[in-house]
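Much of our argument rests on the idea that a fold can be written as discrete symbols. The record that follows shows the chain in one-letter code together with its fold in token form.
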Amino acid sequence: MHVDHEVPPSSPPQPRSSPPEPATSGGADSHGADSRRAALPRPARHRLRPRPRFWLLFAALGLVIVWAAIRLGPTGFVVAAWSAVSLIMFIVAALTLSRTQFAWQRPERVDHVDLTDQESPQVPISLIVPARDEPVLGRTLQQILAGDYPHELMQILVVVSEDEIDRETREIAQSYADRYPCVEVIAPRGDRRSKPISLEDARPYCRGDLIGVVDAESLIAAGLLGHVNTIAVRHPDVGIIQGGVQLMNIRAARGRDGASGDGSAEPPAGDPGGGSAEPQRRGRHGRSGRGGRGGRRGPKALIARFLTWCNEGTSWWRVRNCLEYYVWFMSRLRFQAQARLIPLGGNTVFVRRDVLTALGGWDATALTEDCDLGIRSSARGVRTLVFYHPALTTREETPESLQKLVVQRSRWMLGFIQVLLKGDWRDLPTLRQRLLAIEMLAMPFFQALAGLLLPTSLILIFVLRAPVVLVLLYWLPLGIAVMLVVAEQAAFGEFRRSYRLRSTWLDSVRLVIGAPFYQLVLSAAALRATIRLLRGQLEWEKTTHLGAHHIVPTPRDPNSRERDLAPRGLEGVS
């Protein structure tokens, strides 16, 4: 099924307050409930009582810093200023460590998903798949269609553009729409495209009680929709359901064929989702992209080849990127849900249709529409449930190069700054939530400074004369950083066992040695985001995908009513 509508290219995209009537029958307003539903009430604000011990501790430390500034004379200002910086670094590092270990602090937080006790499928689910120049789209649609959720309860809306860039992607989507009635293609016109714009374009056509978002390169688990259905049935008070997302390729691709070093299976032939385009993209990692025998020689060529290898051929940052996702969705995001302040993930997130309508949909001008929706839903008191299980995670891949990682992170950080300046977090009901929002949304600024402050702190420890108490304070951030590295090693061991990844002791060494360098990469991304903000460069920057994590099951026959409960797609990544 193909739906076509016009988006004026002359005016900038704006979030819709009242979506237009869909061209298809039974659209978003077919039941009439969404348009009549009142806006979600804003919870009343109340301030938390300050904890005396907490403020006394800060008062005592402040007195120590002032005393040092008076006693040390000319160097007093430097000592006092750096003491304050070290104290802030210590607090941020300690909070990061505590939230990293949140999921492992109690046994019930680890085993929080029961795969055996599931409800029968009964909730209609609409899945939006925004796609922009995605030759791997076919494999994603195959994985969704091969799941165990009935096709008659699914609606898959693939959003592509009516331009030459999306021609191949549009043909892939249409080929599936011709074969499967549950797949629909929406092709808006307009020269400005981004993920939030695509989500808003598709929202009026969603008929399901739950509206989910799946990225075009993702592989969802076979039982994911069934588990989401169980949560929606048993927890009617939950307005948003956030599933886990996991990066899988812990090593760089090898050779011309782009075979992943994580042990992933090679994609089978015959995939309509990009069998011709993907090898051309992966060829950039082969010899032709680094200069073969016929290439230029000399010092400049060697330096260029070395920089290309550092950018595209190294794996030290990939293993940390994968672990970052594991800790974020397994622990940190669940802490945020408990704190009733959650920056939603942009993938594998499901929102009840009436809740999404009451919130006004996605902000089409935001760079991180997921974070923006999460902050607005938290301010309105919408309950969010987060779950993570290796058998239910949506699998993705790391960016194709280190440079692409910096671009991706700078877009995320710039989006967080956007949400901070937008100010919806001010409507959060408690002071604790508002302080937590400031800390979370302002984290790009902390990361931009951390890359410079940590090595400077190490130097000042040895050259700056200060009282013993302050010297110990200077060492505290480094001590927390060491504890965080130890915690990451434990989490990495659980991560590779959960997904049966083939790894060696070198991966653990990369994880430890690469920690400070990865922080420098994040600092560079944060600095780039800040510069783009000052220059007013707020355009969307797309992350390209190669499909290094892809394994493709066979879609079920749309006319068959048999349900296969086997975990399709899980055995291929080992």
